[in-house]
User: Which sequence fits this backbone?
């Protein structure tokens, strides 16, 4: 029961059981060498839980006050719990990214309401649009991560425990809130896109006006030249 166990998920989360901090660092330093698209250390999400064995306790494992109580050391039980914990960590990553992005973009609607336009350069606006669009795509991807893992098709008796872990971590509610914020994100993207299109049309309109102005000037100049020549011929 005192052995260490680890579960690695293909969406970039690792669940470590019975590892000391030093052992965690050592193990992670090894697997990070094979990682792709690694996050900055400041963006890494960590959730710590304690666990214990209670052989005389209830048959079903349980979690309360971040304490996981197990009836046995079954790897399948730990994998089931790890699935829920891993999904929660991945969700936290996008929750924080969403909050930071929306907070950073909050002044834009206020600017539109106050000035009728976004007082930023086109390049700055395009950078924000790119960030928002990338985050929106990531939110769509996380919905796949939060699907029920396929292992529970083969082990349906474990799905109840998995759902209990998800319920404790409020994954469904958090995912719903994340999707609501993604809708706000979509509205913000639409607003910025319309603003960019409007600015582009305004620029094109001014180009046309300038061209018409010069065309009129040239036409007037031609008329003046013709009149001058006619007067010179009469004389």
Assistant:
């Amino acid at each position: 029961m005192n052995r260490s166990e680890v579960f690695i998920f293909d969406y970039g989360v690792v669940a470590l059981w019975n590892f000391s901090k030093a052992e965690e660092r050592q193990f992670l330093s090894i697997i990070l060498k094979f990682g792709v698209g690694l996050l900055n250390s400041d963006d890494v999400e960590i959730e710590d839980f304690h666990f214990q064995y209670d052989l005389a306790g209830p048959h079903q494992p349980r979690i309360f006050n971040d304490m996981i109580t197990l009836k046995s050391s079954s790897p399948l039980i730990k994998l089931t719990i790890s699935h829920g914990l891993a999904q929660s960590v991945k969700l936290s990553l996008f929750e924080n990214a969403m909050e930071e992005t929306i907070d950073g973009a909050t002044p834009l609607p206020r600017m539109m309401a106050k000035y009728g336009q976004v007082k930023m350069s086109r390049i700055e606006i395009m950078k924000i649009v790119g960030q928002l669009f990338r985050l929106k795509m990531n939110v769509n991807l996380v919905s796949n991560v939060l699907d029920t893992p396929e292992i529970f098709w083969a082990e349906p008796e474990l799905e109840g425990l998995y759902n209990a872990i998800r319920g404790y971590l409020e994954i469904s509610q958090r995912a719903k809130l994340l999707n609501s914020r993604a809708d706000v994100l979509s509205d913000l993207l639409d607003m910025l896109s319309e603003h960019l299109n409007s600015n582009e049309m305004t620029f094109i309109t001014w180009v046309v006006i300038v061209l018409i102005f010069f065309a009129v000037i040239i036409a007037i100049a031609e008329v003046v030249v013709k009149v001058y020549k006619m007067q010179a011929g009469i004389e």
The helical segments are 21-31, 75-105, 107-115, 122-145, 151-154, 159-168, 171-234. The mean pLDDT is 80. The beta strands are 5-9, 13-17, 50-53, 62-64, 67-70.
